[in-house]
Amino acid sequence: MMLLDNIGFVANMASLVLYFFNVMHFDLSSSATTTTNYLGTAFLLTVVGGFISDISLGGGGIKGSAPALGVDQFDYKDPNERKHTASFFNWFLFIITRGGSIGVTFVVYVSTKVRWCIGFIISLSCAFIGLVFLALGKRFYHVRIPGNSPLLRILEVFVVALKNGRVELPQNSYELTRMNYMKYVFWANWYKYKKDVPVDEEKLLNSGPRRPNEPFSTSVNGLSRQQEELLKSSPGFPHRINLYNCE
């Protein structure tokens, strides 16, 4: 599917400037600007497609969702399947590269030397056939139960920070999770050393340190650390935008 998708997408990415300039009779700067606007919109739709979860909108949606869909087919609890995850990404990148190579050679040649409409029909046909292959394999997929959206988890950190901005923090930050942790230790020791004493196992499992089920709760210590890591990596995003604009 990714092979066919990349044949059409990369072919358009490489030839649209020529199409706008020679066929639509745009000037050179307008042709380049229109092409980069199209590509930027396609890639920015990755955020929308990922938020909806495995629903592709344009080129950006499928590029953000396809790797996640592929990795979900491996069971991380199985050591044999877990070690094949790296091989999946190797083959995934290889297929994408092969599709791009066919797109920028064969399809671009047909578009520029034969007829543009035939080149666009080839791109559209490849995308449609790839969608058919994806749909035919649906019954064989491992469907992962959707969890909380990463974007909502990021938003939760900011909302809780605003709601509790004036709350006085304890002197020892360990006290933020200490009570749940001590309850967990107590019941774990009880179960370990006094197996002959009846223990409510459900109560034991529910006594450990965990986040409440209520959204936008005050227990977001783990989420705040994830937010910190995201902010550390965020300076790289605008540099990638500049890179694609230069291309």
Largest sheet: none
**Low-confidence region ranges:** 53-57, 207-213
- Rg estimate, integer Å: 25 Å
Number of helices: 11
CA(first)-CA(last) distance? 25 Å
- What portion of residues is helical? over 70%
Q: Indicate the structural class.
A: mainly alpha
Number of strands: 0
Q: State the domain count.
A: 2
Compute the average pLDDT: 72
What is the string of SSEs from the N terminus onward? HHHHHHHHHHH
Describe the structure.
The chain has 247 residues and is an all-alpha fold. The protein has two domains: 2-146, no CATH class; 150-236, no CATH class. It is 72% helix and 0% strand. It is built from eleven helices and no strands. The protein has helices spanning 2-23, 28-52, 58-71, 79-83, 85-114, 116-136, 150-163, 175-193, 201-205, 221-233, 236-246. α1 (2-23) packs antiparallel against α2 and α1 packs antiparallel against α6. It starts with a helix and ends with a helix.
At a glance:
Keywords: Membrane, Transmembrane, Transmembrane helix. Helices cover 72% and strands 0% of the residues.
Topology at a glance:
Layout: H1 2-23, H2 28-52, H3 58-71, H4 79-83, H5 85-114, H6 116-136, H7 150-163, H8 175-193, H9 201-205, H10 221-233, H11 236-246
